[in-house]
């Protein structure tokens, strides 16, 4: 199951809304900073969508025009790479918050399809996760080697714990800062101590409303090995929040993250 990537093949409308959001933010930031800002720097280059052993990632199609890239990482990111990416994510999130506050923009109103639209008939699945599962069933139904995975998907319910990196109320403006990664959901397959295959889903559409910087959680739990994570977790948090507050200061948002 290592290094398997699949596309959901849906949600062109959300990609368009996210593209409009990034273009608006990029133009505002460039003017505010009197030049190219962090959005232009990291959005074309950052590659947080990684595949490591025992998991694969569902990703949106047609995101290459936004500059996103897919990386397959065999060993995981190094400590140095984690700190660089964590800082950039924090700076990106801080820029989003500054944009919201200074322009008095309600992101849900201005870019509604960037946000989770819950289905009336299911409180357990988001539209994205459910649609992704349905698509996988269609694509994999004829693959005998994938039958066990389809069985797991059939009975799994996407009830996920809220990730908390640091105390953060799920209120504006912090909790709705769009995360830098455009993935609607990730499915992880891991072997437990008995050697059985278990299933874990993180629904990023829902996580956009959860507490804490979800990209940092994703980076530390997926993009790095256990050994690296243990060494670098606190430093990565510090790098994230330093980048976050640096953006707020540089853009004169008159805010700081309440750590």
TrEMBL record:
Domain of life: Eukaryota
UniProt-listed InterPro entries: CHK_kinase-like, EcKL, Kinase-like_dom_sf
Residue ranges of every copy of the CHK kinase-like domain listed in the record: 58-250
Cited PANTHER family: PROTEIN KINASE-LIKE DOMAIN-CONTAINING (PTHR11012:SF30)
Name by which UniProt lists this protein: CHK kinase-like domain-containing protein
Organism field: Cherax quadricarinatus
